[in-house]
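U., I forgot to send this yesterday:
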Amino acid sequence: MALLEIENLSVEFQTAGGLFRAVDGVSLACGKGEILSIVGESGSGKSVSMLALMGLLPWTAKVTADRMAFDGKDMLAMSARERREIVGRDMAMIFQEPMSSLNPCFTVGFQIKEMLRRHTPLGRAERHARAIELLKSVGIPAPEQRLSVFPHQLSGGMSQRVMIAMATACRPKLLIADEPSTALDVTIQAQILDLLKSLQRDHGMALILITHNMGVVAETAERVQVQYAGQKVEEQGVRALFSDPHHPYTAALLSALPERAKSRHLPSIPGVVPGQYDRPPGCLFEPRCSFATQDCRAGAKRQDATFGHALCNHPLTGGKPADGTQAHAVGAES
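Result:
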């Protein structure tokens, strides 16, 4: 049984122009101790999907799913109080902006100890010792002294390390890392990713890594899920995905890698991810796809008889499910 199972997740936001569906029928599963990467451009619904799981979306969001289970527990049937017992203890998240994720009004030590106070039976002295141990485990020098500093006194890399220490304080079964290295320079990025892999290996926890960096995916993930415009378009093992992408969007992302460039000019994907007012009637990737046909523009699509999801008709897939096991939404709206 998978540690995390999500089926047909949709998230809609009420806006002045009507409902906007930021996540559209996304399904995913993550096993115990597995590293799953969710890839896609900004606006692909990666972060919103995980925030929905954590229960951290604003009141304007409407979340629906056929199934959302964690460690055998039905999260759709949970009360807010029951969810709070899991979030932070068994399931934790590292957010995208480390400099703004920590509360500027409290010291680093207070914020780590508050996490421990809320989710563990440790006494005051034990929480203090555990906080020092956590800062040391994430590579922060002089951890005793760092407990008394405020977030503004830390660099971006140090702030991210503190966030990782807080997220792993209760040894969660699942850690979600949302673009954990985006705001950091290249050297610090590598250190943070190495730290996450080390902690994942040492604690045996599952890791969901949200990123748009395919290089990070290649070095870190075991399995990759690609999302576009709120829909899941492909899912494969990392080696299979890099050697044989099934969807034109995945192929376009890979062709934009510098090491794969076949000319002096680096390939790019024209246009942007469609928003609320410019969603095409057929395949959502059609306006940006160099292989689009009249069928794509007209919205023609084949349906899987069992699962009823739209399949991409591009020769890369031949109408076959993008993950090799069952049909998922692949580029076209359903």
